[in-house]
Amino acid sequence: MQLDQTHVAVRVRTLAEIGDLALVLLHRYPTLLFVGFLLGAWPWMVANALLLSWIPLTEAQYGLDDSEAIWELSRYATWMALLVFLQTPAAGVVTTIYLGQAVFEHKPSWRSALQIARQQFWRWFYCLGIRRLAIPVMILVAVRLFQPYDTVFDVTLPVIVFVVALAVRAGRPFLPEMILLEMCPLRSKNASEITLSRRARALHRPAGSDVGSRWFAAALTLTVIFAGLFYSLVWVRGIVTGYWNFGLVTLLLLYPLALWTVGGLSVVVRMIAYLDTRIRLEGWDVELAVRAEAMRQFGDETGIPKPASPTPSESIAVPRSNEVAATVGEAS
To answer: Which portions of the sequence form the region Disordered (predicted)?
Structure first.
């Protein structure tokens, strides 16, 4: 194991370089979105369709161009966007694990990533699915199945949920990486053990403004990418079919497709931002170099002085191969 021979260049990056490296990774690992993210996202896609597709299907019976249909279609678009926003961290668990392996391995295994995701199911499902409001909001939407539009429920409530989720996600964006890669325990009887809450405070508080501002900047950029992608899909459909109005295909297929595609891209950007934050705050690049040299000199890490306060063990998936390939992002 050569900890200092990573396949993703471990160095400090600007936000523009993080976005550039995300595109490089998607080019090198094109299955990130089309296989990995789909593995984690398809149950949420099916659930969203069951919860919300009845709205455009019902309105289509009376005409989607009807003025009264606008409120119902706005309701559909609002809840769909909010659900995808809340579900994306949970849908991206397999991709996050795969990216953790890709730092050290040239050809990580989707089967291994999927197996790890299954082993940790209840941990990430509780934190990312329940505590991050994805499941509770799905239950709220289910309660309103086949009910008419209501301003309080379909406008005020989504806005409140979105603002709360926005504040939580911007303040602590790297919760998935701490659960899936660092494997921090949710609770521990050992006072010296780093639990998830202690680790979240240690990683996010010292760089709170920097992490939050970067998260908002990335979110705005991804919103613009979503708009461009959605209208591109509508344009392609118009060119192919000659039908330019918003119909059921646009509402039921193209709109969720654009949302989930941008959601998958956000998982890659977040993972790279997590590595960058660790390098800035904890000198993770130096830690890897010291540990790699200790392993070369002593055969293990026993020669490394122990830190005064315990920190989580190696947070990125342990490599299983010494195969060395060109490092991704060296020129980024």
So the answer is: 301-332
| Of residues 80, 102, 84, 81, the one with CA closest to residue 92 | 84
User: Which range is most confident: 102-111, 141-150, 203-212?
Assistant: 141-150
Dihedrals φ, ψ of 318, to 5°? -70, 130
Which two three-digit tokens encode residue 293? 């040299």
What the block records as the tokens of 208 is: 């709170």
Q: 149-189: per-residue pLDDT in tens?
A: 888 899 899 999 999 999 998 888 999 999 998 888 888 88
Among candidate residues 32, 25, 104, the one with its CA nearest the CA of residue 291 = 104
Please, what is the Cα angle at 105 between 87 and 93, to 5 degrees? 10
Q: Is the separation of the CB atoms in 6 and 288 below 8 Å? A: yes
Answering whether pTM is above 0.90, one says no
- The terminus-to-terminus CA distance of the chain in angstroms comes to 25
